[in-house]
Write a structure and sequence with these properties.
heterodimer, A: alpha/beta, 5-stranded parallel sheet, 4-stranded parallel sheet, 12 helices, about 15% strand, globular, B: about 425 residues, alpha/beta, 8-stranded mixed sheet, 8-stranded parallel sheet, 18 strands, about 25% strand
């Protein structure tokens, strides 16, 4: 098997965008700063830029997604790239060989960037071992491993609202065990110097050794969000009931659902985030999701700017001598 | 054939020998150490200067890959790979491609082993039919054709009552049972040890309780049935304490060499060659396991050799098949363990020669006069690069690919015949 290629063999250049884990703070900030340039002031129209003209971006989704795929598509189009969307039943490509065939076909169409979402951890890394040297791979979510672009969207959103990152308390509420978003967020928050990161949920959804990642675990929502500056609520997957991790949605909402009453415990100016899609009345009360502290819709629009920044940096670093 | 092995450093843990000396072989047996029997005239003289001469290694339980193809040369290739790694006897465990429950299958493997230029196979027969954990296999027949033990391989028997009956029946026949300890449910979706490393990797974890529950269940039933049992592949330190609570001389256990060298923090979640069962231990457990091997609370060191076809490893970590190919690298890695730990080389050799021979009741694993002439001679200093093209096993699935290691087998003598002789020099300059 070909060696899978690191995302940044040369630390100043990004080859692929696979995980937050090895990205130094300078590079995270570079992405965030670049995204600022792509994010127009309120009310102003976003202009297309020709940075990816003549290039092709393939969205390779082995798992259903609307939001992530759409923002990648819009981001690529704003950079003037051509976009192919490929939805693949993951069962047909479980074996490396058939996946490799699919990739060869797409490579033959001269794809420059693969955006990959896959239900298995490490899938995007694996794909880097199957593609040509000139191709970049962006991880759009792999199993329960990472969702690095979503984490960058959230960092961008937090930084705009609370620029003093080194003074913040950030609480992430929900299914930490199965969440790739939570993993990437924890890594990004740590790299950016956020001093207190909390994870909040029942013990069935919080991995035992999570404290070794430098976060504090809380098994009670009220304590977990007390005096927090940022509360990130994660989506609860319905299948968690089937695997006996939770008794019912009703009980989860009662114990860990974020309600108007409960957010009073966080700081008065705390912001409420959610990577989407929202289950209203399960992990979050409607009036919280739509309330004045919520920045959920801003996360969505920031998603385009961040993905533009990442694709621009990837394509720029390849052609830089 | 009469053979003299001259000037080697003889390490024979059973007889507490560790000295420069000569070894003499005739009629498939060892006939002298130090001085030859009167009138001895060698046909072949091996100069073992700067080399170590020790009993051939005995693998307590391994998988030799897919052996389902009748005319396949897979078995021969693996047995030659074993011999080139210093192994002279290997216990073959049943697996779904060769369940070792049919007389013909076992006889065929025994026949191939007899004529093959390589290590000799000792078949471990199936404990239950098709390894399904439902109906007992014909253990008496298996014993009669030479199976030296029975096992369900890596397939846990879910029904406690079937397991109890199987152990009880094996006990009737005085067969040693080789048991893996895992809980079928806790093991179900996991691919690595639960802990910080598995959280970061986003890979589903297997908690230590899986092995501890499986082992507790095994120990209670072994005690009740009085069967002679061998607990395979311990990977949790507390497992040793559990076994100690059953002071039964009929229970032995082993640990895999790789589990003493690699821990969950070393695991590369993007390299399926690190995928192995039981999963790599935590660093803390690893230290205690090594200590337990040194204290002889763990009896045996195993290679856990398991060759896996490339296409089953060419995937993400979690959909790859677990298993590590180890015959080729075993000696080098054992030497590096001796160098990195406080364990003497002779203690490690003891755990892979004398101890497994005792558990299996074999007349080998030592250099006593009259023992079977199964001998490994190796150069402890030769450096070589682990390269997939030069590995002799069909399985190229080792996390050590590309690494430079030290120590190479130069000769392997099995039943008094030179089965393997290394003609190459180092591939690493």
């Amino acid at each position: 098997m070909a060696e899978s290629k690191g995302q940044n063999d040369n630390p100043s250049l990004l080859r692929h965008f696979l995980s937050i884990r090895d990205i130094p703070i300078d590079l995270l900030n570079q992405i965030l700063d670049r995204a600022e340039n792509f994010n127009p002031a309120r009310g102003r129209e976003i202009k297309n830029v020709p940075l990816l003209r003549g290039k092709t971006v393939a969205n390779l989704f082995f798992e259903p997604s609307t939001r992530t795929r759409t923002t990648f598509e819009l981001a690529a189009k704003r950079l003037s790239a051509d976009v192919i969307n490929v939805d693949i039943e993951s069962s047909a490509t479980k074996k490396g060989e058939s996946l490799s065939d699919t990739l060869r076909t797409l490579e033959a169409m001269r794809t420059d960037i693969f955006v990959v979402r896959h239900p298995e951890s490490g899938a995007a890394h694996f794909i880097t071992s199957l593609v040509d040297d000139k191709v970049s791979v962006i991880n759009a979510g792999d199993g329960r491993h990472e969702h690095p672009t979503q984490a960058m969207v959230d960092m961008f959103t937090i930084r705009r609202k609370k620029p003093n990152l080194e003074e913040l308390v950030v609480s992430i509420v929900g299914d930490i065990s199965h969440s790739r978003v939570a993993r990437s967020e924890i890594l990004a928050l740590k790299t950016l110097g956020v001093p207190e990161i909390r994870v909040v949920g029942p013990k069935t959804l919080i991995p035992d050794d999570i404290d070794k990642l430098g976060v504090k675990a809380f098994f009670c929502l009220e304590q977990g969000i007390k005096d927090a500056d940022v509360v990130i609520v994660l989506r609860l997957q319905r299948e968690r009931m089937q695997s006996a991790l939770l008794p019912s949605e009703k009980e989860y909402y009662r114990t860990f659902g974020l309600t108007m009453e409960k957010i009073k415990l966080a700081k008065a100016d705390a912001i409420i985030m959610h990577p989407g899609p929202i289950n209203r009345g399960i992990e979050i009360e409607s009036s919280v999701a739509d309330g004045r502290q919520s920045v959920i819709l801003e996360q969505v629009s920031n998603g385009i700017a961040i993905r533009m920044a990442i694709m621009a940096i990837l394509s720029g670093s390849k052609y830089r001598k | 054939m009469k053979i003299t092995v001259e000037n080697g450093q003889i390490i024979d843990p059973k007889n507490k020998i560790d000295e420069l000396s000569d070894l003499f072989i005739s009629d498939h047996k060892i006939c002298g150490v130090g001085s030859p029997p009167s009138g001895f005239q060698a046909d072949v003289v091996i100069d073992a200067e700067n080399q170590v001469v020790c009993p051939g290694f005995i693998e307590i339980g391994c998988d030799l890959g897919d052996l389902s193809q009748k005319d396949d040369v897979g078995l021969e290739m693996e047995l030659y790979a074993a011999a080139s790694g210093g192994f002279t006897s290997v216990c073959l465990l049943p697996n779904p491609t060769h369940t070792l429950e049919k007389i013909e299958t076992v006889e065929q493997i025994n026949r191939k082993s007899k004529v093959s230029k390589g290590a000799k196979v000792k078949c471990i027969g199936a404990l239950t039919q098709h390894l399904e954990g439902k109906i007992l296999s014909e253990m008496e027949a298996l014993k009669n054709i030479g199976c030296i033990g029975v096992s369900n391989g890596g397939n846990p028997i879910v029904s406690t009552s079937v397991l109890r009956n199987a152990l009880s029946y094996a006990s009737t026949l005085e067969l040693v049972v080789m048991l893996e300890s895992q809980d079928a449910w806790l093991n179900a979706s996991g691919v690595m040890r639960c802990g910080a490393a598995s959280i970061l990797a986003g890979l589903p974890g297997i908690p230590n309780s899986s092995e501890l529950i499986g082992l507790s269940r095994n120990l209670l039933l072994v005690e009740e049935t009085g069967v002679k049992a061998h607990m395979r592949n311990l990977s949790v330190s507390r497992s040793v304490e559990l076994i100690e609570q059953y002071p039964n001389p009929r229970i032995t256990c082993d640990v895999g060499l790789l589990h003493l060298l690699l821990c969950d923090d070393d695991l590369d979640p993007f390299d399926p060659n690190y995928n192995v069962l039981p999963p790599l231990p935590t660093a803390t457990d690893q230290d205690s396991l090594l200590k337990h091997l040194s204290d002889r609370k763990i009896d045996i060191l195993s290679s856990q050799h398991q060759p896996i076809a490339n296409d089953l490893k060419r995937s993400t970590f979690e959909s790859s098949k677990p298993g590590i190919s180890s015959f080729d690298t075993f000696l080098s890695l054992m030497l590096s363990l001796a160098e990195a730990s406080k364990m003497q080389l002779s203690e490690l050799i003891n755990a892979v020669t004398n101890e497994p021979a005792k558990t299996l009741g074999l007349n080998e694993g030592n250099l006593s006069v009259g023992s079977q002439a199964n001998i490994c001679i190796f150069d402890p200093d030769m450096q070589w690069k682990v390269d997939r093209n030069t590995l002799r096993s069909r399985g190229k699935n080792t996390p050590f690919l590309g690494k430079v290691v030290k120590g190479k087998v130069t000769h392997t003598i099995i039943e008094g015949e030179i089965v393997y002789c290394c003609r190459e020099t180092s591939n690493f300059e």
